[in-house]
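Continuing the batch. This is chain 6 of the set; chains 1 through 5 are on the previous pages. Same settings as before, nothing changed between runs. Recording input and output for traceability.
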Amino acid sequence: MFPLRDINPIRSTPLLVYALIIANVVVFLYELSLPLVELERLVFRFGVIPRALTVDFSFMSLSTPITSMFLHGGWLHLISNMWFLYIFGDNIEDTLGFRRFAYYYLLCGLAGAAAQVVIDPLSPVPMVGASGAISGVLGGYFRLFPRARVLTLIPIFVFFFIRELPAVLFIFLWFLIQLFGGLGSLGAGVQSQGVAFFAHIGGFVAGFLLIKWLKPPRNRTYGWVNR
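Output for chain 6:
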């Protein structure tokens, strides 16, 4: 399943969402400009390496849960993350406001990195991407806007269908994929599939919990529109 757009109006321009997308794209273009050796050095310096945080502890590694959120492993990784942020992030920023959304995004990203490190503390594989933070955005959306509609592209074998799904169903199915992917990876190395599923799970849970705490009391969110 792939979201094409959500049917959930906003009242303000999501400036931070746009800024995050631009920043991630700029950093990725910089990655592409580097020779392979320099790119590997960049990823190992600024990506989250669980072992560096749990065994080979250094103060330099403490900043990697933040810096890793702006690195991506390829075009598909970047585009899928930024598209989900674009689709679902505007309503969360609209609800929280610029500053609170910045805290929220950062905390969800840190929670995602922490979850992956706890599950696989000895891994020497660097983890990069904004998936933990964006999973947190989905967790907040799931809680605030369960009745919003998501126009979804649904592939079935060689056929493609476009349907409107309730946000609660779309995100629930997305979470199940992450959960089963994470459980399936436990027996063969947590990052053996190249996906840090537990970062997604940790970010989602953090987002689901934090949104209630950070949401200003004056903001009432309905999660549906009259049609």
